[in-house]
Design a protein that fits this description.
Bound molecules: phosphoenolpyruvate
Strand content: 5-15%
Number of strands: 8
Helix content: 40-55%
Largest sheet: 8 strands, parallel, barrel
Number of helices: 12
CATH superfamily: Aldolase class I
Order of helices and strands: EHEHEHEHHEHHHEHHEHEH
CATH class: Alpha Beta
CATH topology: TIM Barrel
Length: 251
């Protein structure tokens, strides 16, 4: 059966000492509580090794927010999937709408990144989601399914089973405007059906599909109560342990 997952995405927030302090608070909370989901924090590259060394990564997974599209070599400023793995991190967020929009990441680039992440034993948290115009035109399901068809649906069954999908409607990210529980469920169900068609009903049933977009302690329970919503990818509300734990304990 698929896992419930709550993953934080700190984005470009927290200096090293603040990041370590937050990670340690979460680590202590998770050591003391029996939670019903896997918990992951997506931290800036430069904090990965320090954070991974400070927490029990079997209880608090550590994720990068991106990786290079090449394995190694003369790519100044890039960070490879192998380097990420060597820090003790186990996950990488790929295809976030901010990376697609501000850094021109397209399906071709993302396919290379997903392949390298998998080759290096990282679990990709693969983001997809539509902009407001697409939602308003009513073509969101087809649009998001096509994002998957162009990328992760090209993976072998064996590799696809290793990824986590995060549906993040762009109009809900950082805007305070959350998709309703019905909108989230409708999309997640459509994505699960598309996975069943691309692979099998069993694989679809075992794939964790997270919702992302202004998820907070006050709406997490309602979102996570949907049969096809298996957790969340959390931006703003992952920046304090009180808010993040409020979401983790919504399961
Ligand atoms: C995100 O960027 O992945 C996200 C979901 O952000 P927020 O929770 O702040 O909307």
């Amino acid at each position: 059966m698929r896992k419930n997952v709550v993953a934080g995405n700190w984005k470009m927030n927290k200096n090293l000492s603040d990041g370590i302090a937050l990670a340690k608070e979460l680590d202590a909370e998770l050591a003391a509580k029996d939670v019903k989901c896997d918990v992951v924090i997506g931290v800036p590259f430069i904090h990965l090794a320090s954070v991974a060394a400070e927490v029990d990564t079997t209880k608090l997974g550590v994720s990068a927010q991106n990786c290079a599209a090449e394995a190694s070599g003369a790519y100044t400023g890039e960070v490879s999937a192998e380097m990420i793995k060597s820090t003790g991190a186990g996950y990488v967020i790929l295809g976030h709408s901010e990376r697609r929009e501000y850094y021109g990441e397209n399906s071709e680039i993302l396919n290379k990144k997903v392949a390298l992440a998998l080759e290096n034993g990282l679990t990709p948290i693969y983001c997809c989601g539509e902009a407001l115009e697409i939602r308003e035109s009513g073509t969101q399901n087809e649009y998001v399914i096509n994002q998957l068809k162009d990328t992760v649906f090209k993976l072998s069954e064996e590799d696809f089973k290793k990824i986590i999908i995060a549906y993040e409607p762009i109009w809900a990210i950082g805007t305070g405007k959350t998709a309703t529980a019905e909108q989230a469920q409708e999309m997640h169900k459509a994505l699960r059906e598309a996975i069943a068609e691309a692979y099998s009903a069993e694989i679809a049933d075992n794939t964790s599909i997270l919702y992302g977009g202004s998820c907070k302690p006050s709406n997490a329970k309602e979102l996570f109560a949907n049969p096809d919503v298996d957790g969340g990818l959390i931006g703003g509300a992952s920046l304090t342990s009180a808010d993040f734990m409020g979401i983790v304990t919504a399961f």
